Amino acid sequence: xxxxxxxxxxxxxxxxxxxxxxxxxxxxxxxxxxxxxxxxxxxxxxxxxxxxxxxxxxxxxxxxxxxxxxxxxxxxxxxxxxxxxxxxxxxxxxxxxxxxxxxxxxxxxxxxxxxxxxxxxxxxxxxxxxxxxxxxxxxxxxxxxxxxxxxxxxxxxxxxxxxxxxxxxxxxxxxxxxxxxxxxxxxxxxxxxxxxxxxxxxxxxxxxxxxxxxxxxxxxxxxxxxxxxxxxxxxxxxxxxxxxxxxxxxxxxxxxxxxxxxxxxxxxxxxxxxxxxxxxxxxxxxxxxxxxxxxxxxxxxxxxxxxxxxxxxxxxxxxxxxxxxxxxxxxxxxxxxxxxxxxxxxxxxxxxxxxxxxxxxxxxxxxxxxxxxxxxxxxxxxxxxxxxxxxxxxxxxxxxxxxxxxxxxxxxxxxxxxxxxxxxxxxxxxxxxxxxxxxxxxxxxxxxxxxxxxxxxxxxxxxxxxxxxxxxxxxxxxxxxxxxxxxxxxxxxx
Length: 494
Prior knowledge:
This protein has about 500 residues and is an alpha+beta fold. The chain has a single domain, classed as Creatine Kinase, Chain A, domain 2 (2-Layer Sandwich), CATH 3.30.590.20. About 45% of the residues lie in helices and about 15% in strands. It contains 16 helices and 15 strands. It has helices spanning about 10-35, 65-75, 100-120, 150-160, 200-220, 235-245, 250-255, 270-280, 295-300, 305-315, 345-365, 375-390, 405-425, 430-445, 450-460, 465-485; strands at about 45-55, 80, 85-95, 125, 165-170, 175-180, 190-200, 225, 230, 260, 315-320, 320-325, 330-340, 395, 400-405. The strands form five sheets. Strands 1, 2, 3, 4, 7, 12 and 13 form a seven-stranded antiparallel β-sheet that branches. Strands 5-6 form a two-stranded antiparallel sheet. It has a two-stranded antiparallel sheet with strand order 8-9. Strand 5 (about 165-170) and strand 6 form a beta hairpin. Helix 11 crosses helix 13, helix 11 crosses helix 14 and helix 15 packs across helix 16 (about 465-485). The longest helix is centred in the N-terminal third of the chain and has 23 residues, at about 10-35. The radius of gyration is 22 Å and the shape is globular.
């Protein structure tokens, strides 16, 4: 969600000033791109990872205690998220090559285990999952939001834009229809975000490749089949996030006004295309104006922060988001992949990351890129089919019409991911371990969502009620999560 904001209410003049400043930032950004202002190490680009987690009590119910848990952890890598039952772990950036994957696995597990021990002292447990299955409407009635002026301002701005309550309507095996008087349902959506530094000249091909990959990526990684006790999509988080942050009343939807949670509408030729769309199509939600004069900063040979453009960009929720950032006075660009849910285990998440980075390298370097052989609408259709059906989805791939996930991943994508990781210089044993998890999952047809649904069904056949089955499933999930065995190998109760 980015840095905190100073205010929770804004005047009309604030929005006018902010619009002018965002446009000025966009003009400066265009100049920086033209002047090749971005230094970049093509051989060793940095990658990063953010893991959003849930907190539960000893009964596996949501624990609204993130301020206490974060105080106990006392590590700046752990931060608040929207919900008081959420925390986020920011994994320090690093290059991909060599044995980084193995080192990262050890470091992430050690950090999360240490955080879990400190959380336990206050009666809380950390869970990596796309949507907490025991979360129910009563948990979000009050006291659900983290203490932050940014979250309060965002909630108010979304409802001021809508002018009415949010309607949640999600189909699936057990359809859900409800009204919400706040953005509380958004807090249920906990993801893993993958970052990759990219040069300006390579950005378009990398982003286009990430859009093509979103469907297969999501089908393999789905881990959010339940919300408020209803079995909905394999990755319900996708549709829930879109609806719970929608600033459009029905009339604007009918007019074709774009949603803020957005797959996009076409392949791009430059990162500027995405920032320009964000400015052109979306009004401000948090119109805070900084004192920086970006034109003067650039003219003086300094790197402008472009604070308004970055803040605005952070309130347009693309599944593959373009990022401009400044670290130690040096600007860089990133693709932030927001497709995947958190969990189920560290090894599963790192396998998902390896598949993504390997595929991205191969797809973005092809002589005739795959996006020149498929319509953008086909990539979006794949994405939604994967969100609905997970491992049971049939996805389009150029030259093959539609394929099952097993046939697509085993027959076409894994060799490409293998080649891409080789191009990144990833050690063979690390590559084989991580992609072996993806192969096992594809052959077994079992991701986190499939295991959750099968386990709840088995527990209900024993006579458990749905709430009891969800809590027991989550208890078993947490046991498996701590073993770090990949989810496709988890047993389902008889």
